[in-house]
Amino acid sequence: MKRSAVKLERRHPRRGFALAVAAISVLIVILAISVLALVERQRAAARDQAIMRVSYLAQSFADHASRILDMTAVLVQFVAGEMELGQRGGRPAAAEFPRPVLDRLATLTQARGVAVYDADGRVVLHASGDRALFENAAADVLARHRGAALEFVVTGLGGNPDSGAAQLLLSQRIDTADRRFGGAVAVSLSPRGLREFFQAGSPPGVAAVALLDTTGAVVAQSSGLLPAPPANLLASFRRVAGTGRGAEWHGDTLIAWYQLRDFPFSVALAATPNIIERGWRAEAIVYSLLLTILAAGAATSLWLIRGQLRRRAEADALLQGFVAHPPLIMSLRDRTGRYLMANPRFCKVFGKSEAEIIGRLPRDIFEPHAAERLEREFTQTVSAGQALTFEARVSTTEGDRDLVIVRFPLRDSDNRLLGVGTVSIDLTERKRAEEALRERESDLRKQAVELERLAHDNARQREAAEMANRAKSEFLAHMSHELRTPLNAIIGFAEVIEKRLYGESWERYGDYAEDIRRSGQHLLGVINDILDVSKIESGRYSMSPDRVELHDLVATCLRLVRGRAQENGITLDARLPAALPPVNVDAQATKQVLLNLLSNALKFTPAGGTIVVETEILPDRSLRLHVRDSGAGIEPAHLERIFEPFWHNASRIRHGAEGTGLGLTISKKLMELQGGDIVIDSEIGKGTTATVTFATGTVLAAPAA
Ligand code: ADP
Fold this sequence. Notes:
- The chain is of the alpha+beta class and 705 residues long.
- Helix content is 50%, strand content 22%.
- It has helices at 14-85, 99-107, 131-145, 192-201, 230-241, 279-324, 344-350, 354-357, 362-365, 368-384, 428-498, 506-537, 550-567, 587-604, 636-639, 663-673, and strands at residues 87-88, 91-92, 111-117, 123-127, 152-156, 168-175, 181-189, 206-213, 218-221, 245-250, 253-259, 265-271, 329-334, 339-342, 388-396, 399-411, 417-426, 546-548, 571-575, 583-585, 610-617, 623-629, 677-683, 687-693.
- α12 (506-537) packs parallel to α16.
- The protein starts with 13 loop residues before the first helix and ends in a 12-residue tail after the last strand.
- 25% of the residues are buried.
- Adenosine-5'-diphosphate binds next to α14 and α16.
């Protein structure tokens, strides 16, 4: 047995799968980038919003500080106005502040004290507050107001701004009547009020709020510390000083400034990252979570798809191998009859490429007769709804092939027809082998029959040969007996005469001579008959049929026997129709046969009997001659033997009329040589009828009606 391993081609969908993985990965990366961008935008927006919020806060704190300073300035101007009215020679006229001034001072909670300086900078009038503070600030106040127009000056007086010990001083110059420097009025303010306001007004996320002077020094601030490293802070502060407002990130801290409108101060505000809206983080988390789920889902799907693809690829490879390797012709057609699949054997057998088959109908591929058969079988299979088997002789690239074709409908789970599958097997070789076997069987049968026939013939021939041999031996025995009997008689009688056994009287020897003649005649008859038989047997007796008038022939024969009939008192009669058509027979042989029969009739018919010759013409123009006698008849047991050579019933023969036993033998053979026959019917005591039948067509013209 030839062993061949079926090699299956495993086609992995690697490329397609890798493309899918790449595409999905790219998609996920794009999504991740988009999410990041989105989150970043949200974060940036949140930071922008924080800047806006913080800037707005700084502005409100600055507005509040401005309002306090404004109110203080109004108080300073009011006091200066009061002082101007009472001024004399550069000195206040009153030893103390007028009542309205003190009242106003009392309403302004931030104000701590009020003082009046003379032109030399001495504190000449003072109410509440720390006098030392005013005195300490005198030089500064003079330096700012001397020579300047009437204006008020705000001076930070140092001290610890946190503890509230720091002081702010708002002052205004007082002129003399002749417009010379007459001194100044100053109101001191405590930054604590501001500090408390800053503190109370700070929302969560604001670390500290401070009031800075133009040098950046802190005048007042909320409890939190402004971020310490003021180097870059100052730098940015100065940078934005010209614009009056600004905000900047310093690391994680957002710093915003707002410059007061009419005063040389700015509000600075430091915010921690908490100030930023955290919404974007939640969004970022949600997006990241979604993205992670998506990526995990995609990865799981890809993994599952990969498994499925591999299984599908294996199943495909198995199916392809299953379809490609067996020596079967397989195809698949859709419900409209178009080819969906054709296996390699199909392509090879029909000499078409797959591209020439797929998607086409049979009539696009095969010659009309074959296509018509395919369509018919397709329709039959579809309407049968089950597998059908066909046999066809199909012309292929390998010559005419005998195929057994199985077609089966394919259906989906809803029993809808999807198409028809076909599997064909080539049985040409087997059929040829069967045919050869059948032929050989029939040859053998013929040979057997022939052998049987030969054996049969052989047996028959052997039997015939044996019979002939036996007949010949019998014939020779009879013949020698028949010859010896008369010869013995002749020799015996001749001896009697020769030795004159009965004396010298010739009368008696005359009878012996008569016996010798008769025996000699009989011997001649026997020898003549034997010669006739041997002539016929050896095939030397040639028939020469000729036109013969039956009347003449019968008359001749009757003439020859009439004498003997009359001698024996027998009536001889010929009952022939007056008009007899001529016949085509051998005249000599026919005469011999008729004479033989007449002589037999004469031998066995007693005196007073009758012998009649009749003719009969049959529709097939054959001729019959009947010789009827009213003689002794033949025993049925003898009837079977009368045609055997030398057989005769001597006991019944009338004296002096003995025969040789060859007459009927010769007659039958002569008739057979002419294509005819002799039949003898007989009944003991009634007579015998011999019927001679000639061949069809012997009568030359139709008998007269
Ligand atoms: P044979 O020369 O002895 O007559 P055949 O062959 O002619 O020999 O006849 C054979 C025998 O058939 C006869 O011996 C006789 O017994 C019988 N046979 C023939 N013809 C007749 C007949 N017409 N009537 C009675 N017996 C007949």
